[in-house]
Amino acid sequence: MSLTVLTSAYRLRSLCRLQRIRGHMMSSQVEPEVLLEKVGNAGVITINRPKVLNALNMSMIRQIYPQLKKWESSSDTDIVIIKGAGGKAFCAGGDIRAVTEAGKVGDSLAEDFFREEYILNNAIGTFKKPYIALIDGITMGGGVGLSVHGQFRVATEKTLFAMPETAIGLFPDVGGGYFLPRLQGKLGMFLALTGFRLRGRDVLRAGVATHFVESKKIPDLEKELVDLKSPSNEEVSKVLDSYQTQSSLDSEKPFVLEKHISDINRLFSSSSVEGIVQNLKADGSEFAKKQAETMSKMSPSSLKMTYKQIQAGANLSLQDVLVMEYRLTQACMKGFDFYEGVRAVLVDKDHSPKWNPSTLEEVSDQAVDQWFSPLGDKDLTL
Predict the structure, then answer these.
(1) pTM score, two decimals?
(2) Which residues are catalytic, by number?
(3) CA angle (339 as vertex; 334, 345 as ends), nearest 5
(4) By C-alpha distance, which of 10, 42, 101 is closest to 223?
(5) Which label site among 161, 232, 296, 382 has the fewest CB atoms less than 10 Å from its CB?
(6) What does residue 169 show for φ and ψ, rounded to 5 degrees?
């Protein structure tokens, strides 16, 4: 069979798959994918796809954004609460499998998804009323974008936080370039490059969450929040503080990274990713060895992209970070590793991606600079 026929067959298969996914993404199923309700004085957003760990898709973004803007300007809505249904996940990420299917066949979803997701992230980051994310469960990627830019993020013992994008040939997006470099020391760079997972109270200790409340207390907390009349941020804070005080679970356990913080600050301070890897290998400790091993499995292109993103983002506004990250998504869509990472982790699940280039040394500074260059009239505008 000729290469042309094979390529056409591949494109057709991708197109059919994309149409199925698109139909699914836009479908109004019996169970709505997101619930937008007015409860008391609060607007309540419930991400309602528990079977897929509340993964965020395009139709959900298109429902949440206009409602959020409405609530922001409406005099009868005082606060917004966002939560996930099903008890397992807040939101485990964006529906990137659909995005890669779109990218393969040149469908506009590959541009539109990131553009509209980042516009929503910015709306959350600039929201003028108290915005409270109850991150009671898995919170990764797109789920981080729905929570971390709001004023209040409430973790529970069920919270599992990570930005694991370097393992799929992407980078910690949704404003990761803004919030990660603002964590203590080099913690953000460490989390970004390794995808290290934080659980429960450690999500608060790392500075990702603002509060920790035991999961069983969340319904009472929510009830108290929706009954508040025109609360200031201070009043919301007072309620959250009181619930945190009553939540002693795991308080005696030290922060999982406590004994490694000075090592992280030392080892992840370098003028390049190669320098960080050298630091880790030379250190010889169990912890350093483990991080070096983790990073050796990540996409070299993603690691270099992420390093520069975190360095640059430290001095940029959230808006400028999102514009930069949008450029990076489009570079990923034109590249190889994002498709290969999604194949290896989400489609075939063999967890053996064949990265190209396969080493850090082969990823040139010129290539990296190219990824960050403006897209002209295709740039994200906020």
Answers:
(1) 0.92
(2) 94, 142, 165, 173
(3) 155
(4) 42
(5) 232
(6) 75, 20
